[in-house]
């Protein structure tokens, strides 16, 4: 990690959705918290014709709408003065000549020492191309400065394309200077999973197959594809969610304690989890995975259309908007413990959580008489929108009878007044400036995730499916319930408030 945080933050895709909704509001929030380096400037690149003045004015609305801190004119003024718009088509060489000169001028003005963050907020097919142009035009020469690149998901469409892309990127940026964003890793509660596990005598000793029955990792959204139909048609839930966010959640939940808190030690343990996942075969894909696509239905009482009726979606699309799978991690800790993963759009509620279900005590005093009432102990790590930890256990119901009821201990991190967790992008951008890549995905993590996902995708591609197979506003196709029912288990629909009502 370096101490010289000064840099010019260069955004390719400066007029795009990600920049307006996430990057600029995150920079504003960092500025608000005095986290931006003193020597700092932003250069945003796009093709649209506008001056820096016009661009800054446009950004005001997105900061007002998307920033977690209120818009304060004076604070914004001191940031916007350092934001510049550069109009050029990045497929043309001329723009890079001018960009190089302009960045050198800004280096003088802001004393940024030649340090650069190149944030590629553009379609993935341009990542390699832009990196190569930056190299050809001398925009990544070191000369006692640092140059880093940030790339957005998706990192490839399958293992083959991810390898090709990686090959292109490593010609230009070392692994150490490549920051592959998985914005889930920037979420507060993801970072908390390690603390909860490894800083509590209450949890770590029982975090294994002797005490844990199974683990569910679930992420549901109420929205459909909205205006991202074009992208989503090529991705689907498996590539859009499972390959990255869901497998990252899995690795943090299942990994062994790292030897220390250094970036590579943590990443090494995460990779070991991915390597230990039992390989899928055609038979296990058919048996242990479920895909779905939403049809018309109701969300919060409002009629909504099916996926096939969405903009830029084929009326005969076979893209999945729901995926569920059961997998095993073949190591000593997790022997015999299934992990169930589920993600979907247009479900009844928006929520992401990890649910650890503990084994039932057998032959206890109460088991014989109360076995129908005894609920399993559950530890729920809530990732979003609510952040916190919830523990369910059994207790006696007050009264003269010996009734046993489940009760809860509920720590809600962002329910407290004044709590205002940083947005994932704030944390991640700040880490790139510091040179800390712990919360970014290393190449071998990407590689192993794609291996797993490719096997499933290939079987799915060759198996006919009748879509749509779940109405909007439901928890996915009935096969997803059966996946657990046949193991005498069930999904816990936390987002619906199922557990919280207790
Ligand atoms: N939006 C999100 O919430 C989100 C979430 C996760 C990941 N991502 C990823 O982030 C990246 C950007 O997504 P986005 O939604 O922001 O895309 P977008 O709204 O379509 O923006 C694309 C940007 O690329 C610029 N661009 C395209 N071709 C160009 C060229 N030849 N020369 C110069 N600029 C060019 C566009 O500039 P002009 O319009 O001015 O030409 C625009 O600024 C993608 O990789 C996406 O997968 C986005």
TrEMBL record:
<feature type="binding site">
    <location>
        <position position="183"/>
    </location>
    <ligand>
        <name>substrate</name>
    </ligand>
</feature>
<feature type="binding site">
    <location>
        <begin position="89"/>
        <end position="90"/>
    </location>
    <ligand>
        <name>NADP(+)</name>
    </ligand>
</feature>
<feature type="binding site">
    <location>
        <position position="153"/>
    </location>
    <ligand>
        <name>NADP(+)</name>
    </ligand>
</feature>
<dbReference type="InterPro" id="IPR036291">
    <property type="entry name" value="NAD(P)-bd_dom_sf"/>
</dbReference>
<feature type="binding site">
    <location>
        <position position="240"/>
    </location>
    <ligand>
        <name>substrate</name>
    </ligand>
</feature>
<keyword id="KW-0560">Oxidoreductase</keyword>
<dbReference type="InterPro" id="IPR019796">
    <property type="entry name" value="G6P_DH_AS"/>
</dbReference>
<feature type="active site" description="Proton acceptor">
    <location>
        <position position="245"/>
    </location>
</feature>
<comment type="similarity">
    <text>Belongs to the glucose-6-phosphate dehydrogenase family.</text>
</comment>
<comment type="pathway">
    <text>Carbohydrate degradation; pentose phosphate pathway; D-ribulose 5-phosphate from D-glucose 6-phosphate (oxidative stage): step 1/3.</text>
</comment>
<feature type="domain" description="Glucose-6-phosphate dehydrogenase C-terminal">
    <location>
        <begin position="194"/>
        <end position="492"/>
    </location>
</feature>
<protein>
    <recommendedName>
        <fullName>Glucose-6-phosphate 1-dehydrogenase</fullName>
        <ecNumber>1.1.1.49</ecNumber>
    </recommendedName>
</protein>
<feature type="binding site">
    <location>
        <position position="221"/>
    </location>
    <ligand>
        <name>substrate</name>
    </ligand>
</feature>
<dbReference type="InterPro" id="IPR001282">
    <property type="entry name" value="G6P_DH"/>
</dbReference>
<dbReference type="GO" id="GO:0005829">
    <property type="term" value="C:cytosol"/>
</dbReference>
<feature type="binding site">
    <location>
        <position position="350"/>
    </location>
    <ligand>
        <name>substrate</name>
    </ligand>
</feature>
<feature type="binding site">
    <location>
        <position position="345"/>
    </location>
    <ligand>
        <name>substrate</name>
    </ligand>
</feature>
<comment type="function">
    <text>Catalyzes the oxidation of glucose 6-phosphate to 6-phosphogluconolactone.</text>
</comment>
<keyword id="KW-0119">Carbohydrate metabolism</keyword>
<dbReference type="GO" id="GO:0009051">
    <property type="term" value="P:pentose-phosphate shunt, oxidative branch"/>
</dbReference>
<feature type="binding site">
    <location>
        <position position="47"/>
    </location>
    <ligand>
        <name>NADP(+)</name>
    </ligand>
</feature>
<feature type="domain" description="Glucose-6-phosphate dehydrogenase NAD-binding">
    <location>
        <begin position="10"/>
        <end position="192"/>
    </location>
</feature>
<keyword id="KW-0313">Glucose metabolism</keyword>
<dbReference type="GO" id="GO:0006006">
    <property type="term" value="P:glucose metabolic process"/>
</dbReference>
<keyword id="KW-0521">NADP</keyword>
<dbReference type="Pfam" id="PF00479">
    <property type="entry name" value="G6PD_N"/>
</dbReference>
<dbReference type="InterPro" id="IPR022675">
    <property type="entry name" value="G6P_DH_C"/>
</dbReference>
<feature type="binding site">
    <location>
        <position position="187"/>
    </location>
    <ligand>
        <name>substrate</name>
    </ligand>
</feature>
<dbReference type="GO" id="GO:0050661">
    <property type="term" value="F:NADP binding"/>
</dbReference>
<dbReference type="GO" id="GO:0004345">
    <property type="term" value="F:glucose-6-phosphate dehydrogenase activity"/>
</dbReference>
<dbReference type="InterPro" id="IPR022674">
    <property type="entry name" value="G6P_DH_NAD-bd"/>
</dbReference>
<dbReference type="Pfam" id="PF02781">
    <property type="entry name" value="G6PD_C"/>
</dbReference>
């Amino acid at each position: 990690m370096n101490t010289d945080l000064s840099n010019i933050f260069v955004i390719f895709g400066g007029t795009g959705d990600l920049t307006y909704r996430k990057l600029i509001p995150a920079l504003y929030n960092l500025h608000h918290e005095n986290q931006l380096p003193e020597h700092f400037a932003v250069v945003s690149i796009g093709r649209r014709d506008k001056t820096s003045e016009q661009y800054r004015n446009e950004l005001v609305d997105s900061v007002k709408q998307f920033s977690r801190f209120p818009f304060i004119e004076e604070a914004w003024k001191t940031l916007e003065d350092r934001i510049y718009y550069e109009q050029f088509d990045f497929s043309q060489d001329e723009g890079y000549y001018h960009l190089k000169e302009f960045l050198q001028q800004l280096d003088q003005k802001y004393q940024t020492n030649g340090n650069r963050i190149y944030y590629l907020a553009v379609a993935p097919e341009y990542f390699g191309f832009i990196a190569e142009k930056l190299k050809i035009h001398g925009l990544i020469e070191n000369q006692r400065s640092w140059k880093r690149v940030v790339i957005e998901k998706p990192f490839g469409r399958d293992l083959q394309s991810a390898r090709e892309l990686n090959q292109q990127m490593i010609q230009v940026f070392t692994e150490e200077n490549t920051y592959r964003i998985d914005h889930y890793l920037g979420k507060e509660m993801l970072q908390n999973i390690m603390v909860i596990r490894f800083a509590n005598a209450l949890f770590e000793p029982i975090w294994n197959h002797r005490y844990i029955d199974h683990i569910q990792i679930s992420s549901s959204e109420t929205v459909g594809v909205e205006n991202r139909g074009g992208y989503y048609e090529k991705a689907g839930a498996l590539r859009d969610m499972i390959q990255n966010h869901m497998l990252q959640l899995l690795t943090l939940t299942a990994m062994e304690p790292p030897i220390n808190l250094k970036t590579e030690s943590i990443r090494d343990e995460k990779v070991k989890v991915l390597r230990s996942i039992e390989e899928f075969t055609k038979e296990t894909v058919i048996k242990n995975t479920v895909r779905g696509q939403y049809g018309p239905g109701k969300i919060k009482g409002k009629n909504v259309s099916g996926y096939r009726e969405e903009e830029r979606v084929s009326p005969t699309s076979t893209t999945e908007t729901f995926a569920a799978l059961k997998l095993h991690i073949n190591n000593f800790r997790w022997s015999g413990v299934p992990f169930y993963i589920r993600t979907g759009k247009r479900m009844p509620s928006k929520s992401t959580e990890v649910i650890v279900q503990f084994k039932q005590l057998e032959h206890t005093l109460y088991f014989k008489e109360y076995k129908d009432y005894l609920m399993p102990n559950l530890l729920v790590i809530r990732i979003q929108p609510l952040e916190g930890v919830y523990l369910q256990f059994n207790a006696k119901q007050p009264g003269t009878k010996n009734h046993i009821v489940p009760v809860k201990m509920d720590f809600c991190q962002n329910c407290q007044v004044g709590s205002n967790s940083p947005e994932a992008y704030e944390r991640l951008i700040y880490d790139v400036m510091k040179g800390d890549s712990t919360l970014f995905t290393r190449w071998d993590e990407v590689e192993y995730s794609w291996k797993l996902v490719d096997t499933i995708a290939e079987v799915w591609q060759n198996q006919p499916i009748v879509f749509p197979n779940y109405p909007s506003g439901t928890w996915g196709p009935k096969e997803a319930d059966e996946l657990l029912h046949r193991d005498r288990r069930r999904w816990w629909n936390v987002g619906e408030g199922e557990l919280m009502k207790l």
